[in-house]
Amino acid sequence: MTIISGISLNNALGFSFDGVHSSTYDIYLAKSPFNLLPDLINYFETIPGKPGLLDYGSDYKQRDIVLDCMVLAKNEQDLKRKSREIAAWLDPAKGLKRLILDTEPNKFYLARVTKGILVEQIAKQGRFEVTMTAPDPYAYALDDEIYTYTKTGSYNFERNGTAISYPKIEIKGTNTKDKGKISITLNNKTIGYKGDLESAETLVIDSDMLTAYRIVNGQKVSAINDIESVDFPITRPGQNDVTIAMEGEAVITEVKIYSRTRWI
């Protein structure tokens, strides 16, 4: 029986990157440490003649995820062959890809390798450390929480996660510019839209990208000049309140809220 750090191979943990699980290359985690919080940027200011500092808060930096890995091989030649395949799999030139840890299979980070990797050969095995960096330090739900409404009115929904998030809202319906208005209020922040909307189109409000656009024949057409506010809504852990309204010639047939649930 093969043992990885005191655990049988059948119970050994790994990770998925870019849709491929580490076990594909006979890679398993020797250790699975994690940082409770990413590093911080602290905003302090000194005032002459005043002891201490003024605290203007903080922001999170990127999240660095260090994976201590073991790769199983038949011999040195097999280890070298697998190392080449692993290098291609983890190639940072691919850009940010989904990283899913077996310890939290329902969450993902968008990350890439940010340090060189040195493989140490131990008997027939190789041991190495992979440093992945997620510029966005939050973990996101692998299956996002999506809420769909087909009528105007006031609703609420319960969201998982531990941090606020910036949702994407998709709206289907019809409207004629300046003859009607579609309004979505989410947690006391209202976005009103007075532009054109055809039944075959979709209006998208994207709080993360701070933009609005229509999808017309598969193409994005800016709608930012037709919304009344750029104070984009958020979702939060726990209860969220949403109100859907229409005025004049506007008709709403469907509203979808993609929560983009996340954890710090």
TrEMBL record:
Residues 160-263 form the Siphovirus-type tail component C-terminal domain. Residues 35-133 form the Siphovirus-type tail component RIFT-related domain. This is Putative phage tail component. It comes from Thermoanaerobacter thermohydrosulfuricus WC1. The lineage of its organism: Bacteria, Bacillati, Bacillota, Clostridia, Thermoanaerobacterales.
